[in-house]
Design a protein that fits this description.
This protein has about 140 residues and is mainly β. It is about 0% helix and about 60% strand. The chain has one domain: Chondroitinase Ac, Chain A, domain 3, CATH 2.60.220. Strands 1-2-7-8-13-10-11 form a seven-stranded antiparallel β-sheet, with no helix packed on it. Strands 3-4-5-6-9-12 form a six-stranded antiparallel β-sheet, with no helix packed on it. This is Endosialidase.
Length: about 140
């Protein structure tokens, strides 16, 4: 998958794609409107971060490229590309259990903390997409 040259974009199916882990310096884009929501993305080789209406949504260390990012009341799913061992943090509903899938592996059930965050480690290969899906348990 190619990095997102425009930093963030809306896809035809209503999802969004964002992030460019090839950038040497932090680059950001604010006030990107999708369905009445305003998104802000910061991305470069060390980190990719997404906010929606001023609230944390996604962060990866190091930076990643995320495509077809969709979130509903019961599920968050996306494809991710990057380089090597990557830590991804998502903000979901607080103190709730979620089943986590990475690629074809079921990582089991994890519970979010008081702030609603869940963190997972993913081993990424540059140019190969990895599917991530987090669903209400």
């Amino acid at each position: 998958m190619a990095v997102i040259k425009e930093l963030i974009r809306k896809e035809n199916n209503g999802s969004i794609s964002f992030g460019n882990y090839e950038l040497p310096q932090k680059t950001k884009l604010s006030d990107f409107e999708v369905n009445g929501d305003l998104y802000k993305v910061k991305t470069f080789k060390e980190i990719t971060k997404l906010e929606k209406n001023g609230t944390f949504v996604y962060e990866s260390i190091p930076g990643t490229a995320v495509s077809v990012f969709k979130e509903t009341a019961d599920e968050v799913s996306f494809f991710v590309d990057g380089k090597g061992q990557t830590q991804i943090t998502l903000e979901l509903e607080s103190n709730k259990e979620y089943r986590v899938f990475v690629g074809d592996r079921d990582l089991g059930v994890s519970k979010t903390d008081v702030g609603g965050k869940i963190t997972l480690d993913v081993d990424l290969e540059n140019g190969n997409l990895t599917t991530v899906k987090v669903v209400t348990a």
